Amino acid sequence: MLLNKSTAAIIGLGALGSLVSELLARAGVNLLIVDRDVVELVNLQRQTLFREKDIGLLKAKSGEKHLKEINSNVKIDSFSIDLNNENINILKNVNLILDCTDNLETRFLLNEFSVKNRKPMIYGAAIRDKGTVMNIIPGKVCFNCIFNNTASNETCDTSGVLNTITSLVATIQVNEAIKILTKQDYENSLIRIDLKNNDLIKLNIKRNPNCNVCKGVYEYLNGKKDKDLIKFCGSNYFQFRKKQNINELRKRLSRIGKIIDNKDFIKFNNIIVFKDRVMVKAKNENQAKALYSKYIGD
Amino acid sequence: MTIKVFIERYSETKFIDKDVKNISELLKELNVNPETVVTARNNELVTLDAKLKDGDEVRILSVISGG
Fold first, then answer.
1. For residue A10, which of A112, A139, A121 has the smallest C-alpha distance?
2. Which residue in the set A16, A101, A147 is minimally distant from B38, CB to CB?
3. Whether complex ipTM tops 0.90
4. CATH code, B3-62
5. Which residue among B43, B44, B63 places its CB closest to the CB of A152?
6. Which of A44, A130, B33, B37 is packed most tightly, with the most Cβ within 10 A?
């Protein structure tokens, strides 16, 4: 009963978000799903929500369709946006946030939102054959207490990720989500899984007295740590965060080639233009910047 | 003093027989970039300034951000 009156936000519909959203939809939880990316062939090894026919579609839109097919009784709201400090208030009415993102920047932003608005959040992440889950509960240990000043030097591109570890992490995230939503006792440790040796360990965590977020300093929510150019994990897309005049670009680009027009974006070759950002498929950052300059401008 | 260290990245256990004051010094000794890891001392996640004593067991875990 508590589950079908709850709404959980799932941020990121990659490997974790795919399975987390499916399991929660099947359990009857209403969902708010957010993803900024499109489905690519390389995603299908682990992103169980998608099929070959979804390639090229927005993950949030395509995911919404599949989730409604799984359970038509749950409410699904989808957002094909790059979650940032200007739009994060779409999460203000959810009961729980599931962090299924692929980058630390969004995690720090979500953590600050969670702490400031006293919303529980479940951090999940995976790389290679390793995974981790941690509940972030208002008034207790926050993500920044543990991960302040850290950076990850491994990505899905450079190290890869097994679909078994992402499934296991997602399953534990959903298990914790159900406990939190149904007011049961939840995990207070950080869970670490290593499938190389099939180890699952629990590490004690405690509040960091020097944690700025716990003291009410919200640098990500205030936009002080925004990045204008980022590369998506496990994909060849680079994102430039800048407002765009889609009508003007539609006219200009259609003069030199074929464009695919969609309600949410226009696509020209390997470039997808949204009203507030541009995604460019390229081999590296320099090529992405060159394509951006050539077709979009400065 | 002896510190038992498990480095998860390489599934490797080492014994450090040197006087290292805290986690920060231990990571320096092991040539590990402190920005890319979190560290547990006797099964509790601790900050870089956490002190070490003989017999402590340390686990060095990579920061994971994939999803």
1. A121
2. A147
3. yes
4. 3.10.20.30
5. B63
6. A130
